[in-house]
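Hypothesis: this fold can be encoded by more than one sequence.
Test: take the structure tokens below, design a sequence, compare later.
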């Protein structure tokens, strides 16, 4: 298995004149980009960084950020990207936990950097200025030589923490490249494809897009910060051929006033991950894009790919079969190991084999987290799901999100998909709220499209295939559904009452 630095050089040699990266008016071929990246590798070395050192970044999806990622792969530096919306405390946790030597940031993270208690002891590199990242990229140096091998660490991602500090997920060059190769194969990417680089480079999906583009001599079209008009303009201008986004971004694009099918005619392949997609959105995307391929990619930062469904619209909700580097099982909730499995149709926890080529080997300095998540060579995902009679996987939510009402288990995803089919529902999130009789009641938080009422939504559920005990007993109309920076529903905020509601409606009986 090649290390990533050697892999990138192979791409340069194979397709030197192909478009490699673009951002607005700036476009660079592979040959041109390698010149810039080599200068950056030299600049990092002059700063005293050596193979095995850790560099933390807090940047938007600029071409400079993508360049830095590749420079670190060539130099053997462990790049540790964090959310550019990071707080000072969150930044300090990453800096301390990763033993970082250098911090690189742009203006988006300036406030957190100013409030950090640790940056005074580090080398800090900004985007602009005489000695900034942009200046280093404009220098000249001999072509960079790979300094890392397949077994060296490539990147460390931090998982989003809810009740505890985020956990570091260190990943080796061989696992990163294996994941990129699998991503190309499972999404059927061809030579020279162009992808919209809007999923953040602190997230597995952003890195996957960046690395897989290089494998096929393709282009990474940077969009520093997502907005639907900007995304549509970039797709149209650069002839983007595939999209790999979270469902929220698809929703915002296809529902925007500027959207027309002609503006995205170059896009032939759709892929989504990071969250489930409602039936309503699946149908709308299939009608609007008419893609040749529509992939549901289910995975995580730790493993990357669990399963793949290559025709998502044909079987809504299905996450397909185990990926080419993976084995999956469903075990009873609370199982101590992976030896006992659930029957088809029986819901349990999804577990994934750790011997897959894409897998990590354990969390960074968190043995207690390893003991909880890794058991006898299997990774316990914390996700609920089931295999249907065809052997296809359905992910029904997080184990912590499962609603137990009157002794019955209710999956929020199933209820959300049902409600999403009503034309008056723009977005919906379902949670369980405490109830003295039922323990929890199924509660739907709805952002309306128009003036739909609770009674209309309740009638819609009654007339659907949704079981009666899964029917929401309460509706809350909200101005926005809270989400993470990468578009995941933040159900915990709804449970905690952290939302802005519209006037209360009547509760269905």
């Amino acid at each position: 298995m090649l290390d990533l630095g050697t892999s990138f050089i192979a791409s340069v040699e194979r397709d030197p004149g192909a478009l490699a990266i673009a951002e607005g008016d700036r476009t660079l071929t592979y040959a041109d980009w390698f010149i810039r990246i080599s200068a950056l590798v030299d600049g990092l070395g002059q700063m005293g960084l050596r193979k095995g050192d850790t560099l933390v970044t807090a940047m938007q999806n600029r071409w400079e950020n993508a360049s830095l990622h590749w420079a670190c792969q060539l130099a053997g530096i462990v790049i540790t990207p964090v959310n550019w919306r990071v707080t000072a405390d969150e930044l300090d946790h990453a800096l301390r936990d990763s033993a970082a030597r250098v911090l690189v940031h742009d203006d988006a993270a300036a406030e957190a950097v100013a409030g950090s208690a640790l940056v005074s002891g580090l080398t800090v590199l900004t985007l602009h200025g005489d000695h900034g990242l942009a200046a280093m990229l404009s220098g000249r140096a001999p072509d960079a030589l790979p300094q890392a091998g397949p077994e060296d660490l490539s990147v460390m991602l931090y998982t989003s923490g809810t009740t505890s500090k985020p956990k570091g997920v260190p990943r080796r060059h061989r696992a990163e490249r294996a994941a990129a190769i699998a991503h190309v194969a499972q999404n059927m990417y061809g030579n020279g494809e162009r992808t919209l680089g809007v999923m953040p480079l602190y997230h597995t999906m952003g890195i996957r897009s960046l690395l897989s583009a290089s494998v096929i001599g393709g282009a990474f079209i940077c969009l520093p910060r997502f907005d639907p008009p900007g995304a549509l303009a970039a797709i149209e201008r650069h002839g983007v051929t595939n999209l790999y986004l979270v469902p929220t971004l698809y929703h915002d694009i296809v529902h925007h006033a500027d959207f027309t099918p002609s503006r995205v005619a170059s896009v032939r392949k759709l892929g989504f991950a990071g969250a489930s997609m409602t039936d309503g959105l699946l149908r709308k995307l299939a009608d609007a894009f008419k893609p040749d391929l529509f992939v549901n990619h289910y995975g995580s930062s730790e493993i990357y790919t669990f399963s793949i469904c290559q025709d998502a619209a044909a079987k809504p909700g299905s996450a397909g079969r185990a990926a080419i580097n993976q084995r999956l099982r469903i075990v009873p909730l609370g199982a101590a190991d992976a030896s006992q499995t659930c029957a088809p149709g029986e819901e349990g926890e999804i577990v994934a084999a750790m011997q897959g080529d894409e897998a990590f080997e354990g969390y960074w300095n968190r043995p207690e987290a390893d003991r909880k998540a890794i058991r006898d060579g299997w990774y316990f995902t914390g996700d609920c799901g089931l295999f249907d009679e065809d052997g296809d996987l359905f992910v029904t939510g997080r184990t912590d999100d499962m609603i137990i009402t009157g002794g019955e288990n209710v999956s929020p995803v199933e209820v959300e998909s049902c409600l999403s089919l009503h034309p008056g529902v723009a977005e919906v999130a379902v949670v369980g709220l405490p109830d003295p009789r039922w323990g929890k009641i199924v509660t739907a938080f709805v952002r309306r499209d128009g003036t739909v009422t609770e009674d209309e939504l309740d009638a819609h559920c009654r007339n659907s295939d949704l079981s009666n005990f899964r029917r929401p007993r309460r509706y809350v109309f909200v101005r926005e559904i809270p989400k993470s920076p990468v578009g995941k529903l933040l159900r915990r905020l709804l449970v905690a009452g952290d939302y802005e509601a519209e006037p209360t409606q009547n509760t269905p009986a």
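Residues 30-46 form the longest helix (17 residues). The chain has three domains: 1-12+26-179, 248-264+282-399, 401-495.
Hypothesis status: open.
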